[in-house]
Amino acid sequence: MVTASEIMDRVIKKNPGEAEFHQAVHEVLTSIVPVLDRNHRYAKARVFERIVEPERQIIFRVPWQDDNGEIWVNRGFRVEFNSAIGPYKGGLRFHPTVNLGIIKFLGFEQVFKNALTGLPMGGGKGGSDFNPKGKSDDEVMRFCQSFMTELSRHIGADTDVPAGDIGVGGREIGFMFGQYKRIKNVFEGVLTGKGLNWGGSLVRTEATGYGLIYFLEEMLHPKRKTIEGMTVVSSGSGNASIYAVEKCQQLGAKVVAMSDSNGYVHDPEGINLETVKQIKEVERGRIKEYLKSHPHATFHDDWRGIWSIKMDIALPNATQNEIDKEAAEVLVSNGVIAVAEGANMPSTPEAVQVFHDAGVLFGPAKAANAGGVAVSGLEMAQNSQRVSWPFEEADEKLKNIMSNIHRSASEAAEEYGCPGNLVAGANIAGFIKVADAMLDQGLV
Ligand code: NDP
Ligand code: 2IT
């Protein structure tokens, strides 16, 4: 039988230079070794070796023209990773750091995350190295139209359903949906995160952040704690962070810092979220502008420094590998009791080890941030039935899904001898669901 380290060596050799993808694969593989040892049929059928190979990877040219008539060329990606349990599903990221390795790490994680939601969604991810920052609405529209002109050949409501991620929100989804409809002449739920008057679901905007806090409450529950009265820090100030902060505040926690890629704002009196929403959602400005209306707060131009604040709860809601070993050690020495990951893979493996060794409650991204894609799944269901559910109904379903994810991850961790380890539990529960579906479907 092939050993785990042989599998890992092959992944590294076959996918050179894709450090984030290697990191994501290594974590899942490490977690599922006991599953492969106990159930030889997975190893015999080489299920893991198949899972790490995307079903399809599409890379394409995206030419577009700026407002001065100058021509630019970006690179577009869609990695259709796994369709064992449903159509490919996952976001699109527009950020200058996007490359194939980043999209593959995100797509790989998405496969297991989507399985954990209990909804019929396979995994995929896409995006571009386009930087929407500083571009006019017209430029963003022209880029989105060009991007969708190619992407439309590969997606569809029953094939592959993209959504937002970093740099892709309601505006971009609107432009892409419009272009898809022109090309295909069908009005279908091909994207999620749509506007509320053209097929979007209530709660999708809030879902990643709210879901994260519902999951965090599940983590705290066995310790007889809630977030009420806790001091919280949430990095980033985009979709995931803003709605995590909103839910924290609704539940009586005090959020004292948020950030963007230029730095972080520390407001010991508690962040005023309306100000952050105005800066980020309306003006598309920078977080340091917070100080204009809140001069008692401080701005620090090192965004990683946010983890040196004393806090009870850390919510990394910006990007991958934003908490390294040193940051984790500072968090632990300052008495952090829980870390819940809203971003994808925001803690390095060494940081996760520090949290586990210190007995910090740790909610891994795949489980803790699955609320966004879960409500995307609910949006797909509503689109298929041509109905729209009230806010309370969608929110209640989100809460139940997050609670079920916490339960499945906890039970899997228990069953495979690592009680309380939600990293292992989430990986195992997600893997078993996808692996069993692949076995049922023959050599796929
Ligand atoms: P947004 O684009 O809305 O916001 C991203 C935020 O993170 C911004 O404040 C941005 O700052 C900051 N950020 C991004 N990249 C970096 C970087 N390299 N260094 C420092 N700060 C950075 O994206 P989302 O809120 O949607 O995404 C945040 C995280 O949540 C990502 O990891 C994403 O994959 C994950 N996620 C998102 C879901 C969703 O539904 N939107 C669902 C599940 C996970 P700046 O503006 O300066 O770039
Ligand atoms: O990482 C993620 O789960 C997302 N960006 C959301 C994906 C989706 O299809 O809603």
- CATH top level assignment of the domain at 207-358: Alpha Beta
Quote the distance from N terminus to C terminus: 20 Å
Spatial strand sequence of the major β-sheet: 9-8-7-6-10-11-12
Rg value: 21 Å
Helix and strand content put the structural class at alpha/beta
How would you sum up the major sheet? 7 strands, mixed
Please mark out the parts with pLDDT under 50 across 5 or more consecutive residues, or reply none.
none
H and E order = HHHHEEEHEHEHHEHEEHHEEHEHEHHHH
Bound molecules: NADPH dihydro-nicotinamide-adenine-dinucleotide phosphate, (2Z)-2-iminopentanedioic acid
Detailed description of the structure:
The protein is α/β, with parallel strands linked by helices and 444 residues long. Among the domains are: 51-189, 3-Layer(aba) Sandwich (Rossmann fold), CATH 3.40.50; 207-358, Rossmann fold (3-Layer(aba) Sandwich), CATH 3.40.50. The protein is built from 17 helices and 12 strands. The strands form 2 sheets. A 7-stranded mixed sheet has the order 9-8-7-6-10-11-12, with helices on both faces. The chain is globular and about 65 Å long. The two termini are 20 Å apart. 51% of the residues are buried. The model has no long low-confidence stretch (mean pLDDT 98). It binds NADPH dihydro-nicotinamide-adenine-dinucleotide phosphate and (2Z)-2-iminopentanedioic acid (2IT).
